[in-house]
Amino acid sequence: MKKHNFYAGPSILPEFTKQKVAEAAVDFAGTGLSVMEVSHRSKEFVAVMDEAVALVKELLNVPEGYSVLFLQGGASLEFLMAPYNLMKSKAAYLNTGSWAGKAMKEAKYFGEVVEVASSKDKNFNYIPKAFDVPADADYLHITTNNTIFGTEIKTDLDVPVQLVADMSSDIFSRPIDVAKYDMIYAGAQKNLGPSGATLVIIKDEALDKTGRTIPTMLDFQTHIKAGSMFNTPSTIAVYACLQTLVWLKEQGGVEAMEKINIEKADLLYAELDRNKLFVPTVPAAEDRSRMNVTFVMAEGYEALEKEFNDFATSKGMIGLKGHRSVGGFRASIYNAMPADSVKALIEVMKEFEASH
Ligand code: PLP
User: Fold this and answer.
1) What local confidence, expressed as pLDDT, does residue 174 receive?
2) pTM more than 0.90
3) Predicted ipTM?
4) 306 CA distance to ligand 1 centroid (A)?
5) What would the pLDDT profile of 25-81 be if each residue is shown by its tens digit?
């Protein structure tokens, strides 16, 4: 039976990426060695890193004056590296969920954290709209897509300060205006590759302003100077990211991807709004994530949750169980998720509805 992968991360990757990685796991770039066995200083791997950086710049239209890095430590380490490198004394944070909260916790080690708004009052099921950002804040930190709660900021905000964004779960899902950001970061394991690589896009000019001494590995300058090779990168993870970037370019880039993502998300939300058994957890259409579609059983049908999960699993739908802080279900439909898998899920929902 065909499996449809709705896991939130690590999650579905393009067939192209998996095929290329499988080949390179045995014979990388004609070396006769695995991509896991070659030196990161070999000319073959240096070419992989260079091409991956160049493709990130091309696909996101990164302006001059920004560095692109592939680091380790996940987005979680960037919660710390962002304020360590960018926060002089005060930074603003928009609290849209657990990941934003974790980012705020780390920032508090470095100065004053102003929570400009929070959607905690409704279990983070919306994106706060009206909030003031102090003009003297060093940046506003946002989580563009809230993987757990299924909300997403789908535009580049207009605020009086530069943005720092955790784009772990929606990077490359739409075009972005990089110039509005001092820093963008993303763990690779949703829209880019396997876990083990973290993408960072950082504005060079924003660095060296804190007066702080930063330990070597946590200093962005270290990694910029060393071309992401200060320490040994995860060669297979970066190789996989490169293949996804190549695939993305072939699909028509982030503009084409956005169109497909809107179509997929619209299909699924339309079914959730129609089907009597389910309700999306995010009421406002403009706040609904195109990447993580969260839903619960409708009132009166709560007792069917386990039965639906078992039914969907029996039909090849994998990874639909929602995060424990929301409950219910979460269909993660990242870039690599074919529209056919979304349609297959909708069929399963309809079939379940018909039998109840
Ligand atoms: N930020 C967001 C939005 C996430 O979805 C995740 C992981 O799921 C993280 C941060 C943490 O990423 P990592 O596990 O790479 O540290």
Assistant:
1) 98
2) yes
3) 0.99
4) 27
5) 999 999 999 999 999 999 999 999 999 999 999 999 999 999 999 999 999 999 999
The set of catalytic residues is 99, 166, 190
Do the beta carbons of residue 129 and residue 154 sit within 8 Å? no
Domain 4-11+253-354 = CATH 3.90.1150.10: yes
Distance 307 CA to ligand 1 centre (A): 30
Cα-trace Rg, the chain: 21
**End-to-end CA separation in angstroms for the chain:** 25
Per the CB < 8 A criterion, the answer to whether 322 and 294 are in contact is yes
Distance CA 158, CA 179 (A): 12
Residue 189 is labelled as binding a ligand: yes
Q: Which residue's alpha carbon is nearest to atom 10 within ligand 1? A: 75
> Sign of the CA dihedral 314, 6, 295, 256?
negative
In the structure, which protein residues have their CB atom closer than 6 angstroms to any atom of ligand 1? Answer: 9, 74-76, 99, 143, 147, 166, 168-169, 187
Q: Where are the domains of the chain?
A: 4-11+253-354, 15-250
Ligand 1, atom 9: nearest CA belongs to which residue?
Answer: 75
Query: Residue 321 forms beta bridges with which residues?
Result: 329
Q: From CA 106, how far away is CA 100, in angstroms rounded?
A: 10
Distance 144 CA to ligand 1 centre (A): 12
Dist CA 169 CA 184 (whole Å): 12
CATH number of 15-250: 3.40.640.10
Q: How many alpha carbons fall within 13 Å on the CB side of residue 34?
A: 9
DSSP 3-state of 56 = helix
